[in-house]
Amino acid sequence: MNIFKHEFKSYLKSVGIWSVSIFLIILIYLSVFSSISTDIETLNEMMASFPEELLIAFGMTEMDLSSILGMYGLVFLFCQICLAIQASNYGFSLVSIEERELTADFLLAKPVRRGEILTAKLLAAIASLTITNLMVWVSSFLVIGMLNDGLPSETKPLIMLLLSIVLFQMFFLAVGMLISLLMKRVRSVTPLSMALAFGMYVLSAFGGMLGDDTLEVISPFKHFEPNYIIKNAAYDTPLVLISVVTILIAIPASYLLYSKRNIHTAV
Amino acid sequence: MSIIEVNNLTKYYGKARGIVDVSFNVEEGEIFGFIGPNGAGKSTTIRLFCSLIYPSSGEAKIFGKDAIKHGPEIRQDIGYLPSEVFYYEGMKVLELLKYSASFYKKDCTERIYELSDLMELDLKRRIDDLSYGNKKKVGIVQGLLHEPKLLFLDEPTSGLDPLMQQKFFNLIKEENKRGATVFFSSHILGVVQKMCSRVAIIKEGSIVDIQDIQTLQRENYKKIHVVAEGIDEKVFDIPGVIKLEKENGAVNFFYKGDINLITKLISEKKISDVTIEAPTLEEIFIHYYE
C-alpha cells in the first residue's frame, strides 16, 4: 500500500494535464464542427475537395457529419491518440524510471517481493488512467449535452465508445511495460511511447489505404475504431479479442521478466 | 553460525565479468572489510546479496537462508548504503525517510530524528537541492533507521568531509556494539584499517586473500625512502626488498620482513632523510599482482 500511495502521488500532475487537454480537445473540436455543420452543403463541398487518401487516413470516409455523434467519432479518435500516448508513457516508465533515475537500489533493497512492487506500480498507473478515463466520460457528456441541447436520443453508441477506453488504455500500458522490460535499458520514454502510439495509429489509418490489412489487426485503433462502433452500436468482437489476448499475455510476461531482471547501476 | 556464507558465487553480465567463484564467510558481530580497486567486483557482490542482481552460479546465504529465495524476509534485517545514492527528487528528506521506514515492521520515527540529528541532516529540504555529501547522509540514515542486524556499506565515506566521516565511523562502531554485523566495502585501505577486524581483498572479480587486518599490515611491505649523498643502493639489496630504485640521490624500495634489519642498515650510513610509510592500497596490491 505504501508503494501504491507513493506511485499514485507521482502521477497526479500528469493525470491533471492529460485530463484538461482531453477536455479542451473535446470542447474545441466539437464546438467547431457543430458550428460548421449548420451549413451542411459547404461542409460536404469541403470534404469532397480533400484527397481521398487523407479522408481514409483520418477515418472520415464513413463519417456522418450531420449528427453530433458522427462528429464525436472523429473527436474521439483524437482522444484515443492522447490516451494512447499517456498509457504508453506510463507503461514504458513504470519500471524503467527507477533504473533511469537510479532509485531501484533504494526500492529493491527493501523487504518486498518484486511481484508486490510491480502490482503496486501497475495499480497506481491503472488508477491514474482510470481517472483520465472518467474525465473523458464527463467531458463528453458535458460538451455533447451543451452543444446538442441535451443528450442525443440514441446514447448506446456513445456509451459503447466510452466503455472501450479501459481496454484501449490497458493495451498500451501493458505493451509499453513489456517492451521496456525486454530492453536492457530505457534511456528516454517519450520517443518510445510516441513511436508505439503513433505507430499503432498509422498501422490502422494507413493499413486500409495501402491495401495491406494484415498488419492493422494488431492495432487497438483498429480494434476500437470509433466509426465502426458508432455505426453499428457494437464492437468488432474478434478484433477486440486480439486486444484482450495481448493484454493477458503482456502482463504475466512482464511479471516474469521483472522477477528475473538484473538491475544495472550507473555508467 | 555465519551471518554471510558465500559459496562459489559467480556473476557474468553477458560476457563481461562481474565476480568469479567467490567464497568467504562473515561471522556474527564482525566488521568485515572488502577492499579492491574500482571494477574489481565489490558492488557486484553487495548487489548480489541484496538480490538486485541474480547470480550466474553459486549461492549466497544470509542469516543461513538463501539470499534469492528468502530475499524479502532477509532484507527486513538488512541495511544497505549504495555507493551512488539517488532518491526520488521531488520528495523532501523527511518524506523519503518515512517512505523508507514504511517498509519495515517496526516504528522507526524516533530513530529517524536521532540519526538525522547526529548526522546534521536537515529534514525539511528537498532531495534535489541536496549536495552529494548531504545525499550520502540521507543514505546513511535510510540504511540505519530500522536498526538492521546486518549492514552493507558500499564505499560509504565518499563525499563526506573528515568530520562527518569520523561521526559516521563512531555510528557504525556503535551499531556494531549493539550487535550489528557490518560488511564494509572500500578502495581506501586507511578507512578499512580503522574499522575492520578482517578483510577480503578482491581483484578482477576473484578473492585473492582474506586476512586479519593486523596480519595484513604486519606482513606487508613497508615503503622506504632514504636520502643520502653518494649512497650505493646495493647495500639495501637484502632478502625481502623489492623495487629497489635510485633516483636523484635518493633510494626507494619496498621491504617486507624484520624491520630491525633495515633500520640497522640505514643507521650505518650517513643519511640526510628517511621515511618509512605504510603502503597505500595500490602498493599493498603489489604483493598480489606479482
Structural class of chain A: mainly alpha
Shape of chain A: elongated
Number of strands of chain B: 14
Name the CATH homologous superfamily of the largest domain in chain B. Answer: P-loop containing nucleotide triphosphate hydrolases
Low-confidence stretches of chain B: none
Contiguous low-pLDDT stretches of chain A (5 residues minimum) are none
Give me some keywords for this one.
heterodimer; A: 267 residues; mainly alpha; 12 helices; elongated; B: 290 residues; alpha/beta; Rossmann fold; Alpha-Beta Plaits; 2 domains; 6-stranded mixed sheet; 4-stranded antiparallel sheet; globular
Task: Give an overview of the whole structure.
- The complex is a heterodimer of chains A (267) and B (290).
- Chain A has 267 residues and is mainly α.
- Chain A has 12 helices and no strands.
- Chain A has one domain.
- In chain A, 76% of the residues lie in helices and 0% in strands.
- In chain A, α1 runs parallel beside α6, α4 runs antiparallel to α6 and α4 runs parallel beside α8.
- Chain A is elongated and about 65 Å long.
- Chain A starts with a helix and ends in an 8-residue tail after the last helix.
- Chain B has 290 residues and is an alpha/beta fold.
- In chain B, α4 packs antiparallel against α5.
- The longest helix of chain B has 17 residues.
Briefly summarize what is shown.
The complex is a heterodimer of chains A (267) and B (290). Chain A is mainly α.
Write the layout of secondary structure elements.
The complex is a heterodimer of chains A (267) and B (290).
Chain A: H1 2-36, H2 40-49, H3 52-57, H4 68-100, H5 104-108, H6 114-147, H7 156-163, H8 165-182, H9 189-207, H10 220-223, H11 226-232, H12 237-259
Chain B: E1 2-13, E2 16-27, E3 31-35, H1 42-49, E4 57-62, E5 65-66, H2 71-75, E6 78-81, H3 93-101, H4 109-118, H5 132-144, E7 150-154, H6 162-178, E8 181-186, H7 189-195, E9 198-203, E10 206-212, H8 213-218, E11 222-227, E12 241-247, E13 250-255, H9 259-267, E14 273-277, H10 281-289
Parallel strand pairs in B: 3-8, 3-9, 6-7, 7-8
Antiparallel strand pairs in B: 1-2, 1-4, 4-5, 9-10, 11-13, 11-14, 12-13
Helix pairs in contact in B: 4-5
